[in-house]
Hints:
The chain is α+β, with helices and mostly antiparallel strands.
Amino acid sequence: xxxxxxxxxxxxxxxxxxxxxxxxxxxxxxxxxxxxxxxxxxxxxxxxxxxxxxxxxxxxxxxxxxxxxxxxxxxxxxxxxxxxxxxxxxxxxxxxxxxxxxxxxxxxxxxxxxxxxxxxxxxxxxxxxxxxxxxxxxxxxxxxxxxxxxxxxxxxxxxxxxxxxxxxxxxxxxxxxxxxxxxxxxxxxxxxxxxxxxxxxxxxxxxxxxxx
Length: 212
């Protein structure tokens, strides 16, 4: 394997390790998985190349909003983000060529949710929830999207309703529509839960108010 190919493979491998670790953590694994997996990857890289001695060092970002390389912000206000950030320093000396490559990798899945409802007729209202999914800042598709709504203190699945519909615009934007009992000036709390195509989970909650 040529030096340039090995350097590229090491960097791409680092991103795959971060992505897989983030998917695990976002679905309930302990946060130490990220460090442990990167440590194993660095050890593997150190013994893989036979024509020289590669060294891969990494540091997990530990400044706000990251803690131990991770950011899981799933709050209210229609915004949720699941991310991992690490700084790397790769060096390789193969007898003829010396390589020193610092780089940073930031893997993020972001979810924006907007919602509103309007009275259709009598005691029925239509709730419209728009979700936008991004991978590393670019529009991305969801593997699975679930919308819940709060009623009498319990969270219920919107797709259990006969009136439920989901429109996939093919660009990372989704529209969920369902009907609910209407009370004037009532707000509807909804929670959107998404798995992207990388297996990373993110959620965001928003309060839907009556549109005019």
